[in-house]
């Protein structure tokens, strides 16, 4: 009832209400299933930069701090990826481009709306003109 008092809120446009307590508890539950999930999400949602490695710090700490400087970016994938499965494309991005492909934007045939597949199954094949979601240090890294 209170949402209807907000003039800009419109459920027909896809506006949703987010319950922060439910979100926090969901992160805790996911961290039980996948240790480190809440840390990853917190780091992705915060803005930090870390450019220099320190020889005085342990390697794991340098790696962690470098990871906190990463952000999520989207970019259209090259048509060269068409026909590859998601795991093949993710492996190629990681080994050759040093990018972490975590999701794709997909469309059903004949539909205007799209949906996001996070780490899709091994049998999902990429099509041409598909958008990828990456974790990287900068947008320039993703665009190359």
TrEMBL record:
GO molecular function annotations of the record: potassium channel activity
UniProt cross-references to Pfam families, sorted A to Z: BK_channel_a
UniProt xrefs under InterPro entries: K_chnl_BK_asu, K_chnl_Slo-like
Localisation: Membrane
Keyword tRNA processing among record annotations: no
Domain Calcium-activated potassium channel BK alpha subunit: 15-104
Annotated TM spans: none
Membrane disposition: Multi-pass membrane protein
Record keywords, A-Z: Ion channel, Ion transport, Membrane, Potassium, Potassium channel, Potassium transport, Transmembrane, Transmembrane helix, Transport
Any one GO cellular component localisation term in the record: membrane
Transmembrane helix as UniProt keyword: yes
UniProt name for this protein: Calcium-activated potassium channel BK alpha subunit domain-containing protein
